[in-house]
Structure to design on (193 residues):
């Protein structure tokens, strides 16, 4: 039985501005760094065997905070990157409406499909369960990749709630089936404004 902890990176300025980040390499902001620090204190008390992260800075930095307190090395993988958002990366909704009109989401603007991103995430997780049977593995990634991967792995669970920055979701693989142990938990941020 393999347990996987899925973590969304800490806050960035583009999150605050509601800009599409996609694979643009935006760093954590001051709040995001504090969130990552609080998350790492939570993870210090938990038992984990490995840490993987997207190679984009915001996820790498979040994972590095955990790795530092756990004294564990973080391995990165490009498959854990956020959805590639083509021409809309760096834009706000208002900018998209101004440039392409109300039907902007129906245009071919080079955005990776939901099926493509879920396939990347599922492929990586399948490799993890083969490589680390009966172990506990943390994966630090991005909102869309994590959400779409979870929809593929645990379609029987209610996972509609938007993943919060530094949220922890735990899933367990046993007997060829996935189950959700915890979803979108940010208890480590209680009291943090």
């Amino acid at each position: 039985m393999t347990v996987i902890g899925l973590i969304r990176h800490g806050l960035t300025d583009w999150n605050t501005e509601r800009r599409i980040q996609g694979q643009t390499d935006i760093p954590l902001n001051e709040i995001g760094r504090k969130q990552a620090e609080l998350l790492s204190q939570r993870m210090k008390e938990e038992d984990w065997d490995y840490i993987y992260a997207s190679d984009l800075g915001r996820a790498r930095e979040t994972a590095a905070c955990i790795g530092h307190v756990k004294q564990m090395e973080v391995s990165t993988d490009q498959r854990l990157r956020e959805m590639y958002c083509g021409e809309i990366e760096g834009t706000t909704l208002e900018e998209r409406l101004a440039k392409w009109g109300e039907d902007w989401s129906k245009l071919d603007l080079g955005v990776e499909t939901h099926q493509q991103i879920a396939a990347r995430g599922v492929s990586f997780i399948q490799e993890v369960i083969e490589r680390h049977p009966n172990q506990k593995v943390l994966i630090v990634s991005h909102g869309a990749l994590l959400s779409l991967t979870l929809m593929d792995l645990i379609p029987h669970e209610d996972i509609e709630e938007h993943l919060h920055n530094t949220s922890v979701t735990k899933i367990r693989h046993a007997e060829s089936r996935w189950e959700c142990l915890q979803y979108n938990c940010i208890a480590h941020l209680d009291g943090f404004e």
Summary: The chain has one domain: 2-189. The beta strands are 2-8, 50-53, 74-76, 136-141, 168-174, 177-185. The domain at 2-189 is CATH 3.40.50.1240 (Rossmann fold). The first helix runs from residue 13 to 16.
